Amino acid sequence: xxxxxxxxxxxxxxxxxxxxxxxxxxxxxxxxxxxxxxxxxxxxxxxxxxxxxxxxxxxxxxxxxxxxxxxxxxxxxxxxxxxxxxxxxxxxxxxxxxxxxxxxxxxxxxxxxxxxxxxxxxxxxxxxxxxxxxxxxxxxxxxxxxxxxxxxxxxxx
Length: 157
Known about the structure:
single chain; mainly beta; 5-stranded mixed β-sheet; about 15% helix; about 160 residues; 9 strands
């Protein structure tokens, strides 16, 4: 293809203004630099917060933060993950708390396979533990549905 024809094709692809025409980019088009934050709620009905499919690749706790590595199909809308804690602790030593992760894809029908880190602040769970069992250090076995390894131990002082 002659160079002049290639140049014309580039200008046509870039619009009437040529290469100097600014391109609008939305903040939603730029992948996040680091983990996203997810909400933590107490409820017995997690399905109302989203039931879209996802894969839980990894889970870890550091301090009061639960970090999850999640994969899901999408790419055209913002995805929301909510950590849903049961209203009741299961009595054992240490106590256990069932958790579910709700995923709302906001109608995203795109099919790119995305992997993203999400962080959840567990201080709400710590505060609920202290209301039930008193101040001071504590330990909660988190029964996160689908977690690799099955359970996570949340220890706080």
